[in-house]
C-alpha cells in the first residue's frame, strides 16, 4: 500500500601525503559512478585519520619515554591504532566488493558507508502530533522538515539512511504494534511494509548485511526474540537467534561485519551486558559489559562504538558519553554532551559525531543539535 506523505512544513589532500592513489587508470573521475568516487574519498579519509593517529602515537611514545612517565597512554593508543587498522582493512574489502557488484547499495549503517545527509524521524509523538520526519545536513548542522506520517504510535524503532526511513513496531492505545512503514524521500511516498511476526514496543533495530534486525522490546513482558527482514529479497520477517538477556530500549549497531546489542532495561535492572551475533549467525554471545543505560544513542566512529545519553534511573536523563573498543573489550570515558537527551539519533560522519534531536528529562522535544569534534574533544551546540 503506497501513500503520498502529507507535507507539514516547519581538503584537498596535501601533495605527497600518501603513497596510494585510488584513481582508476581507465576512467576519468567525470565518468566514474558518484558512489565509487564517494567510497574512494572515504577510504582516503580513513587512511589519513590512521596516519594522524600514528603520528600522535609516536609523539606521545617519544615524550613519555624521555620523561620516564607511565606508558598507559601509549598502550591505549596502540589499541586504538590496531582497531583503526582493522577498520581500514574492512572498509577496503567492502569497497572492492561493492565496486565489483552491479547492485545498488540501499544502505549500510555500520560506518563502512556513511551516507550523508540522513533522514531523521522523531521518536516523540502522540495522536495530536503524528510522527515527524526531517532531513539532517551535518555540514550545516541544519534540520529540514519534510512532513508527518499518519498512524499514531509511540516507542517505535527507527532505521534511516539518506533516502529511506523505516518505522518499526511501537504502541498505540495499549496495542503492541507489528506495523512497519517506510518513507522514501526520493519518491515522496509512504509504503506499508511486511509486518513483524510479533507486535513489540520499545524495540531496537538496525541494518546489518542488507537485513533489518529488530531486537528485543516489550509486549507485556520483556522480550529476547529477534526478527530479521531481508531488504534485497523482501518477503516475510523471519525468526533470528534469541538474545541471552531480555531487554527493551537497547541499542543495536552493525560494526564492520559484526552485530552488537548494548544496554537496555530488562524489567528489573538496566542491562549491563553486551551481546554479539556469532560468526555462524546462529546465536548471540555475551562478549562484554557496560554501565547500564536505556534509551540511548549509539554509532560507530573510527573503530569504536560510541554511546551517549539515555537514562539509568526513572528520574534522570544522561549527558554522559563513552566509547567501546570491541577488539580489546575496553571502555573509555569521553567528554559529556552539553545537554542530556534520550530517544535521539547519534550519527557519525567521517569527521565528527552528531547528537540529533531527541527528548529532554521532561520529554520535551530537543531541536538543537550537538557536534562532537574528535580533534578538540569538545561538543558544540547548533
What characteristics describe this protein?
382 residues, alpha+beta, Neuraminidase, five-stranded antiparallel sheet, four-stranded antiparallel sheet, 27 strands, 16% helix, globular, Kelch-like protein 10, Kelch_1, Gal_Oxase/kelch_b-propeller, ubiquitin-like ligase-substrate adaptor activity
Describe this structure in words.
- The protein is an alpha+beta fold.
- The protein folds into two domains: 35-101; 118-381, 6 Propeller (Neuraminidase), CATH 2.120.10.80.
- The protein is built from two helices and 27 strands.
- The chain has helices at residues 34-67, 72-100; strands spanning 2-4, 6-7, 118-121, 132-137, 142-148, 157-160, 164-168, 171-172, 175-176, 180-184, 189-192, 204-208, 211-218, 222-230, 238-240, 251-255, 258-262, 273-277, 284-289, 297-301, 304-308, 321-325, 330-334, 345-348, 353-356, 370-373, 378-381.
- The strands form seven sheets. A five-stranded antiparallel β-sheet has the order 1-11-10-7-6, with no helix packed on it.
- Helix 1 (34-67) packs antiparallel against helix 2.
- The radius of gyration is 21 Å and the shape is globular.
- It starts with a strand and ends with a strand.
- Residues 1-27 and 102-113 have low confidence and may be disordered.
- It comes from Caenorhabditis elegans.
- Residues 10-34 have a biased composition (Basic and acidic residues).
| Strand tally | 27
Could you tell me the CATH topology label of the largest domain.
Neuraminidase
Percent in helix: 10-25%
What structural class do helix, strand and pairing data support? alpha+beta
Protein name: Kelch-like protein 10
InterPro entries: Gal_Oxase/kelch_b-propeller, Kelch-BTB_domain-containing, Kelch-typ_b-propeller, Kelch_1
GO molecular function, one term: ubiquitin-like ligase-substrate adaptor activity
Keywords: Kelch repeat
